[in-house]
Structures are given as C-alpha cells and as structure tokens.
Amino acid sequence: MLEADDWVEHTDLVIDRVHHVQQLVVDMQTGMRGYRLTGDPNFLQPYTVAEAAVDVTFNGLGRLVADNPAQIRSLIELRGAYVQWHQHAHETIALRRGGEEGLQELTLSTRDKAMMDVLRASFATFIAVESDLRDRRSEAVREAANFASKSLLVATLLLGGIIAFVARYQLIRLSRSYEDALTVERWTHTKLVESSDALRANEERFHAFMDNTPAVAFIKDSEGRYLYVNKRWDHLFRVKHGDLLGKTDLDVWPEALAKRFCESDQAALATGQTQEEVQSILASNGETRYWMTLKFPIRDAAGSVLLAGMSIDVTGRKRAAKRTDALPAGSR
Question: Average per-residue pLDDT in the chain?
C-alpha cells in the first residue's frame, strides 16, 4: 500500500512539472510578442529567463517518466512541438533585431497561433494521460486490503462439513418416534435456517475478503480449468472473472508462460505440498511485473482434489533487491 501511495505522489510530481514547462513556454511567447510589437528589449526578459529553464525542466521530466514507454513517446512529441515553436520565435526575434520592416504581422501572428495550438494540444494530451494514471493508482491505494491465506478456504469447508454432520446426526437420533420426529422437524428447520444464515454470512465474508485483497486468488480443478477467481483479476489483467471460468492457462496466457503454470500446478497436485514460485508477467500497460505465487491442493465436499493459489505483486521488492545487489559490498 505504501508503494502504491508513493506512485500517486510520483504522478502528482510529473503533472506539476508539466504545468511548470507549460508556464515557461507561455512566458516565452508573451516576451516574444511584446518585443515583436514594440522592439523594446525589456520585453525579452521573461523570454530569456524561461528559455534557460525549459530544457532543464524537460530533462527532469524525462527522468520522471522513464518507467513509462507511452509517456516517453508523448514527451518526445511534446518536446518536438516546442522545438518547432522555439525556432519560429528565434527567427521572429532575429528579424526584429535586424530592423526588418518586412515582418508581415498577420502572417506571423497566424503562424504563431497555429504552432502554439499544436503545443497546447500536446501539453493537454500528456497531462490527460498522466491524470488518468494518477486516478488508477489512487484507486489501487483505496482497494488495498488484508492479505488472503489458504486457512480461510480450509476453515470454510470444515465448517460446512461440521454443520452437515451435526444436522444429520440429530435428525437420525430424534426420528425414533412421531413426537420426536415433530421435534426433529422443528429443530431441523431452525437449525437449517441458522445454518443457511451462517453459511450465507460466511460466504459473504469470504467474497468480501477475497474481492478486496490485493492478492490474486484462484481455484482450478485437476485438469487445470478455472473454477474460481477473485475480482482482482478484472483490475490487473483486464480479464473478467466470469469469462475465465472453465478455461485453462493455455486459453488465457502465452504458450510458454502457460506451460510453466501447468508444470507448477501438477507439481503441487502430485506432491501434495505447497509450491512457491516467482514469475514475471507482462501487464496490460506493457510493464513487466513480478508475482510470487503459492499453490496448494485442497479437497471439496465431494472429496475431489482441487488446486488453490494466491499471487502477490512483489515488483517493488524485486526491484529494491536488484538495486541493493547492484551496490558495492561496503555500502549495502
């Protein structure tokens, strides 16, 4: 959760820097126009000050979005539009300094407006994309919840089995006489209502827990078909959990990655032991993320062996470890 919070602050910093660059360009345009109209060098002061700061600010902005290929491309387009306008402004100032009386005011103004419109549109596009990214990262912070564990699955199945056993035992014991049968009926009805309410409450708590955990959770049958996935799938992989049910990893993931998943599935089912692995997966935004996955066998009420698993995003931890490993031995 703290890592997601840091990314929100990072995005706010990017947006602030873009607005700063945009204000610098506006200052340059104001100074250039004032000098073009009057020929007074004092009007060039805001132009000169802003011009010296633009490239430095652009470079800093490039470092901030270095982790986002899409924004790097947008930044290149934005900087290209600025370079074109800057060349136009430089030529206009040079003509005015040379005493050129042939400046065609309408033509130059029209050209300046057209280039600034392109530049403003590039700024707006960049800010809109970064704002959308900030909204999604803020949503990730709000959705962070407690980590899920396999004990909840085992406890839920065990509770259902105990309730079913107790109800069956009491029904047989009290059915020896008619009066007992009536008593059993009334008791059973009460217990079934209570059990139904308890099971419904347990199921609601289970789904609330699983759908709000930051981990990806799933259950497959012995053939590798998905029987259950939590809603975290929708957010992370853009695959609706309803569309995933009944499918295998080969239907969802690239073949090489799907085969690795199938191999670890079979290892967990064959050994009956929990399997732990870390896999790299390409996210929907093109970024490589690292996931630590725990897989373990469970049994349903019919005794069939199923495979359950949970995956946690450990990208931040993985990158921190790489940075630590890259440090000299004495500075770790």
Answer: 80
Q: Where are the domains of the chain?
A: 2-143, 148-213, 214-327
How far is it, in rounded angstroms, from Cα 290 to Cα 283?
A: 10
pTM: 0.40
* Nearest-angstrom CA–CA distance, 318 and 289: 9
CATH of domain 2-143: 1.20.120.1730
Whether residue 297 is predicted with pLDDT greater than 90 in this model: the reply is yes
Identical fold, 2-143 and 214-327: no
Instruction: Look up residue 122 and give its two tokens.
Output: 């590039």
Alpha-carbon span 218 to 293, nearest angstrom? 11
Helix (H/G/I), strand (E/B), else coil: 87: helix
Query: What is the phi/psi pair of residue 276, to 5°?
Result: -120, 135
- Give the H/E segment covering residue 191: helix 178-212
3-state helix, strand, coil in the chain (%, to 5): 70, 10, 20
Regarding the domain delimited by 214-327, which CATH topology (the fold level of the hierarchy) does it fall under?
Beta-Lactamase (3.30.450)
pLDDT tens, residue by residue, 158-217? 666 656 655 566 645 755 766 765 677 887 788 878 877 887 887 788 878 887 888 889
Going from the C-alpha of 140 to that of each of 2, 280, 306, the distances in angstroms are 11, 20, 30
